[in-house]
Design goal:
globular; Rossmann fold; alpha/beta; two-stranded antiparallel ribbon
Length: 211
């Protein structure tokens, strides 16, 4: 994977045509680019993955595979990059999509929840109050779970409105992200909810260490 990353970074343009002969789970992770702008940014940028047709399709398929046969009523994506994977997952499942927004963007009645993101910044998350009815089974999607603060806030909002986010051992739906790091917050989520991510076990330590 590291050699593939270096080869692609040496190219001045994205290669949107190359597809490996053998597409193992997570092959598309090599399409992501490392942070070159400093500590105020995430350590990896997955947006090039989204530009690759086969990479995006395989990423969404891998995220949804553990939920095959599960009863999912709606997909919810977290502002902002979770909108990409969440909407793609909703379209694949032929379900509706609910945008969970950062505060100040919704002009309808909302429920709010404070949280700290991966950088430790204090923020406020909002969800419209009319989209979730009691018992609605929600698949929550975000791009990345690092410290777990953002996802926990989204879970809190959905459950406060009566939605179900796959609390173990009853697992009608759950939580999905490209990577779920083995942080304290990440472990808290994985111990309590049905989760799906794209990082193979052999690479998980490198992702946890941001290598």
């Amino acid at each position: 994977l590291h050699a593939q990353c270096l080869q692609r970074l040496q190219s001045p343009r994205m290669d949107l045509c190359h597809v490996p002969a053998t597409r193992e789970k997570g092959w598309y992770l090599a399409l992501m680019a490392p942070n070159v702008k400093g500590p105020n940014y995430a350590w990896l940028d997955p947006s090039r993955l989204y530009c690759h047709p086969q990479g995006l399709q395989d990423c969404v398929a891998d995220l949804l595979q553990p939920f095959q046969g599960d009863a999912i009523d709606m997909v919810a994506g977290i502002d902002a990059m979770g909108f990409i994977l969440g909407a793609a997952a909703a379209a694949t499942l032929r379900k509706g999509f609910l945008a969970i927004r950062k505060a100040g963007h919704l002009c309808v009645p909302t429920e709010a929840q404070p949280y700290s993101d991966y950088s430790g910044r204090q923020k406020l998350m909002e969800i419209r109050t009319d989209a979730i009815s009691p018992g609605l089974r929600i698949l929550l999607v975000d791009q990345w779970v690092e410290t777990g603060g953002t996802m926990r806030a989204a879970i809190e909002l959905v459950e406060r409105l009566g939605g179900v986010v796959a609390a173990l051992p009853c697992v009608p739906t759950g939580v999905a992200a490209i990577c779920m790091e083995s942080s304290e917050g990440g472990k808290w989520i994985q111990e309590r909810y049905k989760c799906s991510h794209c990082v193979p076990p052999r690479l998980q330590p490198r992702f946890d260490q941001h290598q």
